[in-house]
Specification:
Order of helices and strands: EEEEEEHEEEEEHHEEH
Mean pLDDT: 93
Distance between the termini: 32 Å
Helix content: 10-25%
CATH topology of the largest domain: Pseudouridine synthase
Structural class: mainly beta
Number of strands: 13
Low-confidence stretches: none
CATH architecture of the largest domain: 2-Layer Sandwich
Largest sheet: 13 strands, mixed
CATH superfamily of the largest domain: Pseudouridine synthase
Oligomer: single chain
Number of domains: 2
Radius of gyration: 19 Å
Number of helices: 4
CATH class of the largest domain: Alpha Beta
Length: 250
């Protein structure tokens, strides 16, 4: 993929730039524990970029080494505990177009998850209904008589022996509900390793004691879509490698 002139960013802890694409599109690899954006100034050191962020404009602002004021518009978010691909744009007009693609479901996102249990099929389509609630400012979801939610699932690798079965699975959500993948995995008896809200708490504690792995093992692995720039269609695809801690158990 052709790239724009490289821009220097005030990157958060262990954040990496994956690629800079035509029109000012930028893809980052966000580690688990890093915020997509700060909600207050005190959170800046823990954010994707360690600089000012405007909630209303969804925009980071900083001054580069030459004294020029730079801006990056955030295009999507990941929960702080989820790692992987997150996008931004150096151009506001492009940001508006790509945000529209997200709203209209024209962007395909693929996740990798390390789960407890043994999947019964190599591939599956999960169609569930989720109830989404807000409790004390936090979002919680559960399977029930709620809104339709669909994910396509593929088993990538399994461990059948040792301390217990675990599997690395690929998840492609066809709907974008809050906490959808975490709730669907738990509902289908494949709780995500390290999920402190919907997971297997006993298994999480045992694994953390044995291996030191305490993070939520959910990773935004790949993002793909087409967008227009300078009168042509750009076919964009970016991948963030599966974290090493996912693979060490397989």
């Amino acid at each position: 993929m052709m790239t724009e002139t490289e821009t220097e960013f005030p990157l958060g802890n262990d954040v990496r730039v994956l690629t800079q694409a035509p029109g000012g599109l930028v893809a980052f690899d966000k580690p688990a524990g890093v915020l997509s954006h700060p909600n207050m100034k005190s959170e800046q050191p823990r954010a994707l970029l360690t600089c000012d962020y405007t909630i209303t404009g969804e925009c980071f602002t900083w001054t580069d080494a030459s004294g020029k004021v730079r801006k990056l518009w955030l295009l999507n978010r990941l929960d702080s505990h989820t790692s992987g691909v997150i996008l931004g744009s150096l151009d506001e007009a492009l940001a508006l177009r790509i945000r529209a693609l997200f709203r209209e479901k024209h962007i395909e996102k693929t996740y990798h998850a390390l789960v407890f249990g043994k999947p019964s099929n190599a591939t599956a389509v999960w169609k569930d209904r989720l109830v989404i609630e807000k409790r004390g400012g936090q979002v919680r979801a559960k399977a029930g008589e709620g809104i339709p939610s669909e994910s396509h699932v593929r088993v990538l690798k399994q461990r059948r022996e040792g301390a217990g079965p675990v599997a690395l699975i690929e998840l492609v959500p066809r709907t974008g509900r809050s906490h959808q993948l975490r709730v669907q995995c738990a509902h289908h008896k494949l709780p995500i390793v390290g999920d402190a809200t919907y997971g297997d708490f006993g298994a999480n504690r045992a694994l953390a004691k044995a291996t030191g792995i305490k993070r939520l093992c959910l990773h935004s692995h790949q993002t793909r879509f087409d967008y227009e720039h300078a009168g042509r269609v750009v076919k964009f695809s970016v991948t963030a490698p599966t974290p090493a801690e996912f693979l060490q158990l397989l």
